[in-house]
Specification:
Blueprint: H1 36-43, H2 60-63, H3 67-73, H4 75-82, H5 92-98, H6 103-113, H7 117-127, H8 152-156, E1 157-158, E2 161-164, E3 182-183, H9 194-197, E4 205-206, E5 209-210, H10 214-219, H11 229-233, H12 247-253, E6 254-263, E7 266-275, E8 289-297, E9 303-315, E10 322-325, E11 333-340, E12 349-357, H13 360-370, H14 378-392, E13 396-404, H15 406-409
Parallel strand pairs: 2-3
Antiparallel strand pairs: 1-2, 4-5, 6-7, 7-11, 8-9, 8-12, 9-10, 12-13
Helix pairs in contact: 3-4, 5-14, 13-14
This protein binds heme C (HEC) (5 copies).
Length: 425
Amino acid sequence: MRRFLIGMVVSVGLAVFAWQTWLGRVSTLPVAEESVESFLANHWNHPLPPQGAPVVDRPALEASLDAASCAQCHTAQWEAWGGSLHSRTMGPGIQWQLRLMNQEQGNRCLRCHAPLAEQKALVALERGWSAAPAKARPDYVPADLHRQGVACAACHVRGHDRFGPPARAETRLQGTAHGGFTAHDAFEDSRFCATCHQFPEDGPRVAGKLQEDTLAQWQASPFAGKQSCQQCHMPERQHLFRGIHDPEMVRKALTVELIPLRENGRAVARVRLSNTGAGHHFPTYMVPKVYARLALLGPDGETRPVGEEIIGWQVDVGLTDEQFDRRIPAGGTFEFERDFPLPTEAGWRIELSLDVAPREHYERVFADSLQKASLMDTGTVTELRAALSEAAATRFNALRLSRSLENLRIQPVDTLARCDGDADC
Ligand code: HEC
Ligand code: HEC
Ligand code: HEC
Ligand code: HEC
Ligand code: HEC
């Protein structure tokens, strides 16, 4: 069965599911004085313990872990989060794999995809895993909490208490609810995100590199200490969490130059892609690929491909061999050139397009797994097919940039481009 699993595996223990065993915060310091490191060690102390006995007399709306309940009062956060991938971390891409796992294996994935004990308990009930809770679901746990993915409560609620960043006068809600909240600077710190976006030193590697290394890339970048993950991914505290799936974010990441020139009698297109706007490698993981494609565009719409380069970290489906690593580190530049046969007639342009496949690695993994569909039950195959089409449907074009070739064309004929067998020249 293991050969079906995607290998983002970190070592965590098997959670014990009783709805009401609250283990308590380990620290003895008043929370606000606790260092960021110590706060985060408690806050993300996996496996996260159950919330414990509900607070007596708290109204149902304020007691609920349901994102839809938070939405009644925190509408802006709910709307933004609902459009983000954090609300969709329990889609078909992980579902088909959970169906092939036992509880211990499944919980390793849920640690990042649905981390609350109450979410793991619901998955255990759904999958019929052995350590599912015996007692009825308490009122503060909605039936679909596990499907909500990285829900509000996963980041903000521990032991039924709310935790958040220090309040800002402009956006602070009037009145009180859910017994107030505890403020800590850790929410504004890049390390807050590390629990899911950075593997520990002994985490899984390919070619010696950690599969997830985003915080370390940020720490080594020109943005360290200047712009946090939150400042780019939650501007003005908006819960957008936009990344490589978003065309505007991709454009923000790069400074793009396309320069057609003549060199030693050849026509050459030079492309320079600089990572000036992502606080980590572009892209940070092995999953996305970005295709930088050059083509000649004719005056009447004809297109002649000139060449392409793939930006990204290419690893085989078994996560053992690196094929290439052409990610662009923060502050770094990737440059390439292509010769092309200069068209003799007027009106031609050279075009660069950036096409993004945000889940390219998963597309390959899912297609490869489909070869073994005969070993799976129909429910699993249905989820797997859905995962493949969902992943493929995320592809998009982020940018098209074109330059006139007139200046090259009017150069003296003796320096004209090589024709490379093109019949037209
Ligand atoms: C009935 C309305 C209501 C509901 C429901 C509610 N909240 Fe709140 N929340 C408030 C109010 C009012 C405050 C301001 C409390 C204060 O200033 O003491 C607040 C404060 C907060 C803060 C701190 C904001 C800051 O400035 O740092 C966080 C975080 C928070 N809530 C999260 C949640 C989450 C998560 C849920 C759902 C699990 C939730 N709340 C449900 C009304 C609500
Ligand atoms: C992945 C973790 C994560 C999730 C999920 C999440 N939040 Fe937050 N939330 C944060 C962080 C981090 C901040 C502080 C951002 C900053 O200071 O730049 C924050 C800030 C807030 C604030 C304070 C906003 C302000 O303007 O002062 C509220 C209220 C809040 N979140 C509620 C919610 C609600 C409601 C949901 C679900 C709809 C939610 N959060 C989901 C991490 C999260
Ligand atoms: C340390 C945190 C972490 C663990 C553990 C983890 N993931 Fe993920 N997973 C992520 C992050 C972050 C992303 C988004 C970045 C990306 O696409 O690479 C992601 C993306 C995915 C995706 C693609 C998006 C989607 O929803 O289709 C799938 C599928 C997936 N993970 C499955 C798994 C499975 C199966 C496991 C357990 C074997 C697992 N993950 C364990 C953090 C984690
Ligand atoms: C509990 C785990 C968890 C925490 C905490 C968390 N994330 Fe995520 N994040 C994920 C997972 C899982 C995904 C993958 C979603 C998918 O593709 O299904 C993701 C996706 C994202 C994406 C979208 C990537 C894309 O492919 O477009 C961004 C951006 C992001 N997270 C930023 C952050 C930031 C910033 C923080 C800290 C404030 C944070 N995350 C905290 C688990 C987490
Ligand atoms: C200076 C702004 C900036 C900072 C700081 C920043 N990011 Fe990003 N991030 C981006 C941009 C722009 C993209 C889209 C391009 C890309 O994917 O690299 C992105 C993409 C992502 C993605 C999508 C997946 C991928 O393979 O690229 C994730 C996940 C992510 N960021 C998480 C984080 C985390 C976690 C931190 C903090 C450790 C962080 N980012 C810091 C700007 C930033």
